[in-house]
Design a protein that fits this description.
The structure holds two protein chains of two kinds. The radius of gyration of chain A is 17 Å and the shape is globular. Chain A is built from 13 helices and nine strands. By secondary structure, chain A is an alpha/beta fold. In chain A, strands 5-4-3-2-1-9-8-7-6 form a nine-stranded parallel sheet. The longest helix of chain A has 14 residues. Chain A has a domain of about 180 residues: Alpha-Beta Barrel (TIM Barrel), CATH 3.20.20.70. Chain B folds into two domains: about 140 residues, Rossmann fold (3-Layer(aba) Sandwich), CATH 3.40.50; about 220 residues, Rossmann fold (3-Layer(aba) Sandwich), CATH 3.40.50. Chain B contains 17 helices and 14 strands. The chains are: A alpha/beta, B alpha/beta. At the A-B interface, helix 3, helix 6 and strand 6 of A face helix 8 and strand 11 of B. Chain A: It comes from Hymenobacter artigasi. Chain A: Tetramer of two alpha and two beta chains.
Chain lengths: ~260, ~400
């Protein structure tokens, strides 16, 4: 059984944490991964910073700018990730970013190096489904990388089923309209109806809810409707202006996961 | 070089050769898909056409004149015509697009409009049609552009639009576009995004090109009347994203005898590190949902373009233009800030027409065409210079 299937089979209420590689400082990537997992994070999403992150709100835009100014790039990231599996042997790890930097690096080489360092899957929000199926799916498969797709309140049932059929990891349920870290969530009833509508589709893949989940209350609420939740912007905010970023990340995760 | 298929039409997925497509996050997929599946049908409806044609005539002031510029012609020893888009209501070609898109938005049942703007012309054109139709309007504008295009900011506010500052990145057109796209992600149901150029995900490049195509449609009729032939030898237009050029080229795309000249902003010089000459400095990549030529570093991070002109400092070009350049159907010329300023002065003094700084780049290319005395050259005079007076005053030494 692979790391992803194993995590979903053996745990409930999974916490997936997103952080931007190269933030707050260039070499925080592996120490942060280790600290997050030791504190209880069940899945990691490592953000590959991009100059124009369209799906992201101000917090991740900011961390991306800092990371790029620090010198982060895909080649630097892969060099750092040589130490990934020594630091977090069992945790599923996804790379999240935008298509253009991956395209410039070379899709085939990207997949090869990602698989070689022990990455399990990739999330590229601006890679359209039709393009993925035609040009990327084979390459991803060849290297054993899983693709994760986003679903929003506007995604039709047919399209959700199609995305589900193409995925072997989890489905990323975007909580409501808006970019990452958003504060304008729809009302609880509307949101619950959306999550229940997805649950009723009896999909093959587990679901994780993300966008705008910032604290323990938000995490616990999301876990009532899905296998777990994703926290990104709130974690990055917790790393701002701290002396010891891994320690701050650990404290943040313990605050979410405490009983 | 005779095309077997028309240069005008992208494929069903919005590709012109290798350029185009719709690289949007899932959050935007329904919005873009709604537009893609309906725009052609709605635009073909007789009542849409009747309403749009009436507005273009009575509100925008179309057809715009095609003016024979005799003193410029004498100077360059060729026959030069100016297509007077500067005489459109609001002072530039941008309103051709916003009139069409606001009618489309109404038919899609949208109740709120957003737009991005660089020089402010598209923002003003959007705010104008929103006032006309009674729809709320939010325009995103880079903080730097807000400073250098103050009169247009005032015009938008006077028209009832809310101007929101884009503070990220270079705080110019690219960043304003990012913010508009994020707004659309947050407001997927009630909002229509009026993109101002032939950029963005499919169907926008095709939609905007079709709405600007009225420029070349009129040119053909007017040329026939004035010269006895519908076809000129050269059509010249400036390119930032490329909407006025797309409109000026559109009905000549499949006429191989007509040379299509796209003029980019070289800024301080193509290799100065301060330029917006995307056709030279750009490589294929993805910007704002479209695969096209764009200025980026070796790691695929989009770099900041520079031009004195706020309407041309975009790090990409529309996918149609990337394709036309690649297959050799259009030719690119790059013009520096200083040469554009000299052209402002020349056009003002020889023809009594003060052009926009963007447009001046096209005029500055006249000396580089190699056009002869029997050739007919049409320059798309895309906008007037009122909005740039502040910049012109600051650069008086280069203008006189």
């Amino acid at each position: 059984m692979n790391r992803i299937a194993n995590a979903f089979a053996s745990k409930t209420n999974l916490l997936n944490t997103y952080f931007t590689a190269g933030y707050p400082s260039l070499h925080d990537t592996i120490p942060l991964a280790k600290a997050l997992v030791e504190a209880g994070a069940d899945i990691l999403e490592i953000g590959m910073p991009f100059s124009d992150p369209l799906a992201d709100g101000p917090v991740i835009q900011g961390s991306s700018s800092v990371a790029l100014a620090n010198g982060m790039s895909i080649p630097v990231l892969f060099e750092q990730l040589q130490g990934l599996r020594a630091a977090v042997p069992e945790t599923p790890v996804f790379l999240m970013g935008y298509l253009n930097p991956v395209m410039q690096f070379g899709v085939e080489e990207f997949c090869r190096q990602a698989a070689a360092v022990g990455v399990d899957g990739v999330i590229l929000p601006d890679l359209p489904l039709a393009e993925y199926e035609e040009f990327y799916l084979e390459t991803f498969k060849k290297h054993g990388l899983k693709a994760v797709f986003l679903i929003t309140p506007q995604t039709s049932a047919d399209r959700i089923r199609h995305l589900d059929s193409l995925s072997d990891a989890f489905l990323y349920l975007v909580s409501g309209p808006g970019t990452t870290g958003g504060t304008t969530q729809p009302d609880a009833v509307t949101q619950a109806q959306y999550f229940e509508r997805i649950a009723a589709l009896k999909l093959r893949n587990p679901r994780l809810i993300g966008f705008g989940i910032a604290d323990k209350a938000g995490f616990d609420a999301a876990c009532q409707h899905a296998e777990g939740a994703i926290i990104g912007s709130a974690l990055i905010r917790a790393l701002e202006d701290v002396d010891d970023a891994p320690a701050a990340a650990g404290r943040f995760v313990r605050g979410i996961k405490q009983a | 070089m005779t095309p077997t298929i028309s240069y005008q039409k992208p494929t069903a997925r919005g590709y012109y050769g290798q350029f185009g497509g719709a690289f949007v996050p899932e959050m935007l997929y329904p919005n873009v898909e709604e537009l893609r599946t309906q725009y052609l049908e709605i635009m073909a409806e007789p009542d849409f056409q009747i309403e749009m044609q009436a507005l273009l005539r009575d509100y925008v002031g179309r057809p715009t004149p095609l003016f024979e510029a005799k003193r410029l012609s004498a100077k360059y020893n060729t026959r030069i015509f100016l297509k007077r888009e500067d005489l459109c209501h609001t002072g530039a070609h941008k309103i051709n697009n916003t009139v069409g898109q606001i009618l489309l938005a109404k038919r899609l049942g949208k109740t709120r409009i957003i737009a991005e703007t660089g020089a402010g012309q598209h923002g003003v054109a959007t705010a104008t049609v929103c006032a006309l139709m009674g729809l709320p309007c939010v325009v995103y504008m880079g903080a730097v552009d807000i400073e250098r295009q103050a009169p247009n900011v005032a015009r938008m506010r006077l028209l009832g639009a809310e101007v929101r500052r884009a503070e990220s990145g270079s705080q110019t057109l690219k960043d304003a576009t990012n913010e508009a796209i994020r707004d659309w992600i947050a407001n997927p149901v009630d909002t229509h995004y009026i993109i101002g150029s032939v950029v963005g995900p499919h169907p926008y490049p095709d939609l905007v090109a079709r709405l600007q195509a009225v420029i070349s449609e009129e040119m053909r009729k007017q040329l026939l009347e004035k010269t006895g032939s519908e076809l000129p030898d050269f059509v010249v237009a400036c390119v930032g994203g490329g909407s006025n050029a797309a409109g000026a080229f559109y009905h000549f795309l499949d006429e191989p005898s007509v040379r299509l000249i796209a003029v980019e902003a070289a800024g301080h010089g193509i290799n100065s590190g301060h330029s917006a000459a995307t056709s030279v400095l750009g490589t294929p990549g993805i910007i704002h949902g479209s695969r096209t030529l764009l200025m980026q570093d070796e790691h695929g991070q989009i770099t900041e373009p520079y031009s004195l002109s706020a309407g041309l400092d975009y790090p990409g070009i529309g996918p149609l233009h990337a394709y036309l350049g690649e297959v050799g159907r259009s030719e690119f010329i790059a013009i520096t800030d200083d040469d554009a300023l000299a052209a402002v002065s020349e056009c003002s003094r020889l023809e009594g027409i003060i052009p926009a700084l963007e447009t001046a780049h096209a005029l500055a290319a006249l000396g580089q065409l190699g056009a002869g005395p029997d050739d007919i050259v049409v320059v798309n005079l895309s906008g007037r210079g009122d909005k740039d007076l502040d910049t012109y005053l600051k650069n008086m030494d280069k203008l006189i």
